[in-house]
Design a protein that fits this description.
The chain is 66% helix and 0% strand. It has 68 residues and is mostly helical. Helix 1 crosses helix 2. The chain starts with 11 loop residues before the first helix and ends with a helix.
Length: 68
Amino acid sequence: MKIVHAQTVLTEDQLEELKKKTNEPSTKEALSVAVQHYLECEYTEMNDEMWTRKLEKVVQKKQQSYTK
């Protein structure tokens, strides 16, 4: 596996929010967690199949809430 160093520009507010959402105190770990999540998340693919899956989950949640 080849490892590379990557950089980006963020505002301080964006970085603090990212650290909160990832529950990571360091910038390095927060960015690593966020990138990994983005790569694994089914909702980051912007295509018809992604929207179909998302809508199916919304319908399932609605149906579950009606049966409770």
